[in-house]
Amino acid sequence: MKTNMLFWDRVLRMFLAIAIAVLHFSGVIPAGVGLWLMIIAVVFMITSYTGFCPLYGMFGYRPKSH
After folding, report:
1. What is the C-alpha to C-alpha distance for residues 54 and 11, in angstroms, rounded to an integer?
2. How do residues 4-61 score in pLDDT, each as one tens digit?
């Protein structure tokens, strides 16, 4: 699968996913909102690991450099 994410995008998504998980498991984020944010965090982790974002592909985003 061809990647469509730049390095900084992958790092940012990984950082946000970790931050959401820490806030959720420490009780800062309420349970209802935390569940939805954890789903987003998992998606961020998967996309940052694979380097491919389906939404970028759907909308035709192509990074200028890799």
Report:
1. 17
2. 999 999 999 999 999 999 999 999 999 899 999 999 999 999 999 999 999 998 998 8
| CA atoms within 13 A of residue 43's CA, in its CB half-sphere | 9
What are the angstrom distances between the C-alpha of 22 and each of 2, 40, 51, 56, 57? Answer: 31, 14, 23, 27, 30
Of 48, 39, 50, the residue nearest 12 (C-alpha): 48
Element (H, E) at 19: helix 7-25
Helix (H) or strand (E) holding 32: helix 31-50
**Distance, C-alpha 50 to centroid of its chain:** 11
Contact status, residue 57 vs residue 4, Cβ threshold 8 Å: yes
